[in-house]
Automatic annotation (TrEMBL):
Protein origin, superkingdom: Bacteria
Organism listed in the record: Paludifilum halophilum
Keywords: Membrane, Transmembrane, Transmembrane helix
Protein name: DoxX family protein
Origin organism lineage: Bacteria, Bacillati, Bacillota, Bacilli, Bacillales
Membrane-spanning residues: 7-25, 45-62, 69-87, 93-110
């Protein structure tokens, strides 16, 4: 089940990233885009930053490389996707909820890899 969820999340972000990069290069996107979302990307660097991150994390999830790092990078993107579709464009809310469920499940599955960042009183290591 975890492999299927990881690959599905990876495919979603690979497709979303590639679709967004088509918009960056002034090509017609393959998948529908939210006109309201495109309004937020008037500063093109935001679109480039987000879509490149989505594309790379999608590849990493599909290939099972750096999965905890990918989940960490995608977490704030997914929270923003949920907030946007919750308050601005509810027609894509089911996809946003699916992303939240997949992300939460995968974070749970890989939870031991996140133990270090959840340390409340971390100690610095001395440099040699």
């Amino acid at each position: 089940m975890a492999v299927a969820c990881r690959v599905l999340l990876g495919l979603i972000f690979l497709a979303a990233g590639a679709n967004g990069l088509l918009v960056v290069f002034k090509l017609t996107p393959v998948l529908p885009t939210s006109p309201k979302a495109m309004e937020f990307f008037k500063l093109e660097y935001l679109l480039i930053l987000e879509k490149v991150s989505e594309f790379i994390c999608g590849i990493l999830l599909i290939t099972n490389r750096f999965v905890p790092l990918s989940l960490s990078v995608l977490a704030p993107i997914i929270v923003n996707i949920l907030g946007f579709h919750l308050f601005e464009d509810p027609k894509m809310l089911p996809l946003a909820l699916l992303l939240i469920v997949l992300e939460a499940y995968l974070v749970w599955v890989y939870r031991r890899h996140f133990a270090g960042i959840l340390t409340s009183k971390a100690k610095m290591t001395e440099d040699a």
